[in-house]
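worker-3 :: picked Sodium:solute symporter
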Amino acid sequence: MENVNANFAFYCVAIYLTLISLLGVYFAKRIKNQEDYAVAGRSLPVYVLVGTLIATWMGAGTVMGGANSLGYQFGLGVAIAFSLASPIGQVVLTFISKKIRRQNAQTVPEVIEKVYGAEARFISTIIILLAYLGVVAYQFLGVGTLLQSTLGISVNTGTIIAFVVIIATSLFGGLYSVAYTDFVSCVMIMIGLFIGVPLAVYNAGGFSSIVARLPEGHLGFGNLSFVQVLGFFLPTFVYLMGDQNMYQRFFAAKDEDTAMKGGIWWSLLTLLIGVVVSIAAITSRALYPDIKPAQAFIHLAQHGMPVFIGGISVAAVAAFIVTTANSFLLSIGINTSSDLYVRYFNREAGPEKLLKVSRICVLGLAVLGYVMIMYFPNILALQMYAYTMYGAAISPALVAAVICPERVTKFGGLCSMITGGVVTIAMEILKKRGWGFAVTYPSVLPAVICSILVLCIFQKRKKA
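worker-3 :: C-alpha cells ->
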C-alpha cells in the first residue's frame, strides 16, 4: 500500500463523513412534523430526487458486494448481468411512478393496507423490518471494512464510527436531511467513478492490457451456470420492484411529473454506474489477483488511480454506503412508528409525539442492525438474503396493488406475502443444512414463483 494514497484517502473519507454529519444536523431545522420527517414535505425537485434515488440505491452492495465482488470473483459478464437488474427494474418503476406518487402515502404498508386490509399492513411491516435490518447491517459492515482499508483500524471500530455518522444523518433531519445529503454524495460518487475508473484503466496500460492479465473466461461468466447467474440477478430485480425507499422518494417528489423525470434519469445513470463498477472490478482482478473481492474497488482507488482522484473515489465508496444506510434506517424507523406504534399502541398520538417515537425507533433499530452483522459471513450473503426476503414477500403484492388493485383480493395478497417470506426462510435453513435442491438453486426462484402463484390463484375472476 502506498502510504500517501492511504493517508489521503483517509482524510477524504473523514472530511466527507464530518460534512454530511453536520449537514444532517443542519437540515433538522426544517423538520416541523411527521410528513417533513418521512417524505420531506413532498417538496423534492428533480435534481434532488435523482440524487437521492441514485445514492440510496447504490450502497455497499454496489462497491463491496454485487457487481464489485461478482466481477472480481467470476467475470465481467456476471457483473454486467447483475447490474442490469437495477435499470430494468427502474424502468418499470418509472412507468408506474405517477401512480406511486398518486398514492399520497408515507410507507409501503400504508399502500398495501388500501388494497389488502389492516392484517396485510401489519405483516408487510414485519417483513420490511426483517429485510431492511439486513440492508442496514451490511452498510455498517461496509463502512467498517472501508475504514480498515484506509486507516488500518479494526472492522469493529470502523463499524461503530459508521453507526455514529449514520445516526447523525437520519435521526434528526429525517428525509429532508437524507435527500439533500444524498445529492451531495451523488456528486461525489459521479466524480469518483466516471473519472477515477477510466484513469485506473489508462494507468494499467489500457483495456487490452487488463484483458491480457485476466484468467481465462473472465470476460464472460466464469464457471457459473445460467441458473446461478439468474440467482444473482433476480433478487435485485424483484426487490427493487417493491423497495420502500424508492416508493418513499416518489412520494416525496413535489408532483407526478417530477417523479417521472426523476425515474428516467435514475435509470440511465444507474446503468452507467453499473457498467463502470463492473469494469473497475475486472481491472482490480487483473492488477491485484490476491486481495479479497470486497476490497477490489477500494484497493484499485488507493493503488491504481492518481492520489487526488483515488482519495475522492474512496470517499465515494463511503458515500455509497452511508447514504443507503441512513435511508433504510429512516425508512424502517417510520414503519415502526407509523405502521406499528400508531396503529396498535397509541392511535391518538399527535404530530410531536409521533416524531419523537420515530426518532427513538431509528436509534433502536440501528442497534439491532449492528447486532445482526454477527449472523452473516459476508456482505454479499447478507445482501442476497435481504433482497430475496423483500422481493419475494413484498414486491409481487405491492406492484399488483399499484397497477391493478381491482384484480387482486385481500386473501390473495395476504397469502402471497406470507408464502414469499416463509419460502425464503425455509430455503435459507435448508441451504445451511446442505440440502441438494436448496444449495443448487437460489432461494429467490421458488420464493418469488410461489408468491406470484398464490397471488394469481386468489385473484378476482372477470365476469363473463
